[in-house]
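Aim 2, interim progress: modelling of the coenzyme A-bound target.
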Amino acid sequence: MIFQIERMSAADITAVREIDCRSAALPWPLSSYEYEVNHNPAGRSFVARDAEGTVLGFLTAWLIIDEFHIANIAVNPEKRRMGIGYALMRHGLVAAKNEKAEQSFLEVRAGNHPAIALYRKIGYEIVSIRKGYYRDNGEDALNMNLYPENYRLFIEKEEHQA
Ligand SMILES: CC(C)(COP(=O)(O)OP(=O)(O)OC[C@H]1O[C@@H](n2cnc3c(N)ncnc32)[C@H](O)[C@@H]1OP(=O)(O)O)[C@@H](O)C(=O)NCCC(=O)NCCS
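Predicted structure of the complex, ligand included:
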């Protein structure tokens, strides 16, 4: 699958929201994406596009001092298991590292095995559990951290493979 990753623009928001609605029990409202793209100084949002420019997936994150917080990621259900989610994470983590990020945090539903596998592959570790965190079904949230050492190792590995 040939795709490229770019910063999310206002023109991408409708397609991003559509993928979010097909992927998440609690999708973000359009206004949240508009804020991320147009106003949030900490916002670092990216999309993966195919050769025609169609949005295949997205990553929304925040860079807060030296912390890169993953806020949301999703790939079009028909385009999963093709490396797009990993590439979005890699792109965001490399870009944040270039802006002096040292560690990365996220939270994920305890039953979301594909996402947990993706994060573990990168080097994130489960550090705590928030019981009954998700309001739609009371599912637990796992807090996962990519600690500075694992972040450095990930970047080194990716640079080596580039
Ligand atoms: C999680 C998600 C973004 C992964 O995107 P993707 O493009 O399918 O992932 P990739 O093809 O890049 O896979 C990278 C790695 O993730 C893991 N992975 C992804 N999907 C998986 C699955 N269904 N089962 C097990 N492992 C999986 C594997 O380790 C995989 O590496 P491998 O292919 O070498 O085995 C995608 O499943 C998705 O959009 N899910 C719905 C939204 C969501 O849950 N977001 C996370 C919110 S916290």
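The two ends are 17 Å apart (CA to CA). The longest strand covers residues 55-64.
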